[in-house]
Amino acid sequence: MWRGHITDNHMHLDPINGLGVDAAKQFAKAGGTHIIMVGKTARDWGLDGLRTEDFIDSYQRTIDFAEKVSRETDAEAFPVVGFHPSEFIGMSSVLGIESACRIAQDVAEVLEGLYLERKIYGIGEVGRPHYAVSEELWERSNVIMEDFLSLSARIGCPLQLHTEHFDKGKYDELSGMIKRCGNPKKVIKHFSPPMPLTAERSGVYPSIVSSKDSILTSISESSRFLMETDYIDDSSRPGAVLGPKTVPKRTLDFLEKGIFTEDDVARIHEDLVEEIYGIEFH
Length: 282
Prior knowledge:
By secondary structure, the protein is an alpha/beta fold. It has one domain (11-243, 264-277): TIM Barrel (Alpha-Beta Barrel). It is 49% helix and 13% strand. It contains 10 helices and 8 strands. It has helices at 21-29, 52-72, 85-95, 97-116, 135-155, 168-180, 196-201, 212-221, 246-256, 262-277; strands at residues 7-11, 34-38, 76-80, 123-127, 159-162, 187-192, 205-209, 226-228. The strands form 2 sheets. A 5-stranded parallel beta sheet has the order 4-5-6-7-8. The protein has a 3-stranded parallel beta sheet with strand order 1-2-3. Helix 3 (85-95) packs antiparallel against helix 4 and helix 4 runs parallel beside helix 5. The protein is globular, with a radius of gyration of 18 Å. It starts with 6 loop residues before the first strand and ends in a 5-residue tail after the last helix.
C-alpha cells in the first residue's frame, strides 16, 4: 500500500465557474495529496484581461484560492500563474499587437517578482496558441515564449508551456529554442504526448495527461514524467479534460497491478516534483 504522496501537475480549480474546493476534496479522497494549481485566465476571474492590473488581480486571487484549498482540504495546492497565449491573442484583437506585447513584458516582470517572493511555485501556462493564427501573431507568440524561456533560465523558475500538439519534430524545435535562451533547466511541456525519452533528450520535463494508454506508453519508456489531468473545472464541461480523481486513481491502480513500482511512483509524484518546484515532502 502506497503511503507516500501523489501529485497532479496541472489542475485548474475555479471557485466561480466550477466545483472549486469540492474538486480538491474529490482529489484528496481518491488519494491525492499535492496539486500544482495552474491559474486560469483573467477573464475566468471576471476581469477584462486588457490591463496589467487585471493580471495582477487574477494572480492574487489564484494565490489566495490556493491557500484556501490547502486550509480546507486534505490536499496542498501550489499556485502557478502565467500569461496564456489565448490572452495575448485576445488582447491583440482589441488593443493591437504592439500594445499586447508591451503588456506581456510588464506581466513578465510581475511574474518574476511573484516567483522570487515565493508567492508562486512556477510560471505557466505560457507559450503559443494550439490553433491557427496569423503569421504575425504566431511569430510574436514565439518571441514571448522565448522571453519566458530566457526568464526561466535567468531566475531558475519552473515554466509550464502551453503549445500546439507535439511530436518529435516539435520537441527538436523546442530544444533549439531552449539552447538559444540560456538552457533553462525547469521547462515542463504541459499536455505532452507520451514520449518521456524524447522530452528528456530535449531538456524538457513532460507532463502527461493521465489517460490509461498514455501512462502505459510512458512508463514503458521511462519514469521521468509528471502526471496531470488538465482538469478545467468548468460546470459547462464537467470532467474535462480528465476528472480530479484521475491521477490518484490511475496511480494506485497501476501500482496494484504491478505496472508501476513504488520507485516509479516516488519518482513521478515526489522526486521530480521536488526537483522542479522545490516542494519539500513531509
